[in-house]
Design goal:
By secondary structure, the protein is of the alpha/beta class. The protein has two domains: 16-47 and 240-257; 57-221, Rossmann fold (3-Layer(aba) Sandwich), CATH 3.40.50. The chain is 42% helix and 12% strand. It has seven helices and six strands; from the N terminus they run αβαββααβαβαβα. It has helices at residues 12-47, 69-83, 112-115, 144-157, 178-191, 204-213, 242-257; strands at residues 57-62, 90-94, 98-102, 164-169, 195-199, 219-221. Strands 3-2-1-4-5-6 form a six-stranded mixed beta sheet, with helices on one face. Strand 2 (90-94) and strand 3 form a beta hairpin. Helix 1 runs antiparallel to helix 7 (242-257) and helix 4 runs parallel beside helix 5 (178-191). The longest helix has 36 residues, at 12-47. 32% of the residues are buried.
Length: 258
Amino acid sequence: MRIPLADARPFSRQLLRGRILRLGLAGLAVGLVLAALLVSLRLDRETRSFLPSGTGGVVVLDVSTSISQETHRQIADVLGDAARSGERFGLVVYSDTAYEALPPGTPAAELQAFRRFFGDDAPAGRFGQPLTPWVRSFTSGTKISTGLELGRSILRRDAIGEGTLVLVSDLEDDQNDVGTLTETLISLRREGLPVRVVALSPDPKNKRLFEDLLPPGSVAEAAAPGSADTTAQVVASKPAPTLLVVLALGALLALAAN
């Protein structure tokens, strides 16, 4: 049963204003939640990209003889994913020496020409090892530092200030190069030049060296050949973007105010 209130009329405006305010806050909270959801979905796609979006970069690819048949297929998967990314970057191939195969800014689709040397349909040698153009020219061991140093010099040459080096390797290195590699990684970190590592079935000890010398989240393992997800999430450990944090906090404040 309702009991009439003699002085209710003076409060009608305040009541209406309160309802409008609550509805407005509820709508704002819903809008912010939806916006945060859209940003998070876009973030998920970005974390699976080969390079951080909006940056120039150089892929530093290991083509040494330590690369096995399994890791050759991983390289094919990684290069195929990169070729479909729609990004632009350069390519350095290395073993004991290194050379520039593609200049920075090259459309990613050009990597398909290199992918064919590593897939299941690649021509094979006497011992089943895929025959790449570098089999005879790179035969004196593996020096990861040479690939990274050439990648750095290319970014400097082309004045790419926000470039990224992406090392695709099994992380096996010549013992005589470990000291130089350590110095190179330390200097790259001091310079603030981002290095992402896509590790191809690495030895845990070798992987640990890179994890110790690079910022957290810089090292990821490539998926096993034939896996449904062939993309190493090389930027999956980046901090949450500012926009997503702002939207989430805004939604919480709107709910609290309501």
